[in-house]
Amino acid sequence: MSSKDDLLKGKKILIVDDEPDILDTLEEVLSPCKVVKAGTFEDAKRQLETQPFDMAVLDIMGVSGYELLEIAVAKKVTAVMFTAHALSPEDTMKSFRGGAAYYVPKVKMDELPQILANILEEKTKGQSTWKSFVAWADPYYSVKFGPNWEKAKKELQEALK
Q: Which burial class, exposed, middle or buried, applies to 43 when counting CB atoms under 10 A from its CB (0-12, 13-18, 19+)?
């Protein structure tokens, strides 16, 4: 078992997405964790309000992800935004400003266990999770979004100083 699995082992994670195949894949990818799945906003809201979670992985579209982010932040649940359709520097910044710990494009789903383990490690050390986000996302975002990403990246870096 890798140290990544050790960090995630037994962590209770809420995964929220309106696509059942995505939920199934995430459950498989996050096998070291205790995963609770929610396919609707209502179900996710109920889960967040009735039980404790170490982390939440929230889709943005289809399940009112930003509204769920507010609830997760209020409950002190570390939230990661997870999206295919809302992938943009603007939504990345909205996630950052809303209190999310990270922002993951669905095309990077296979990297989620390592990302979540890194987030847990950084939070334990009292470090910002967004510094590693910038390092991780910069090559992908630079190619995909160009100047729009450069502006958002600068704002992120200023906020993290």
A: middle
- With cut-offs at 50, 70 and 90, classify the pLDDT of residue 85: confident
Judged on CB neighbours under 10 Å (0-12, 13-18, 19+), 118 is: buried
Q: How confident is the model at residue 99 (pLDDT cuts 50, 70, 90)?
A: very high
Give the number of other Cβ atoms within 10 Å of residue 105's Cβ.
Answer: 18
| Cα R_g (the chain), whole angstroms | 15
The CATH code of the domain that includes 41 is 3.40.50.2300
Residue 68 lies in a domain: yes
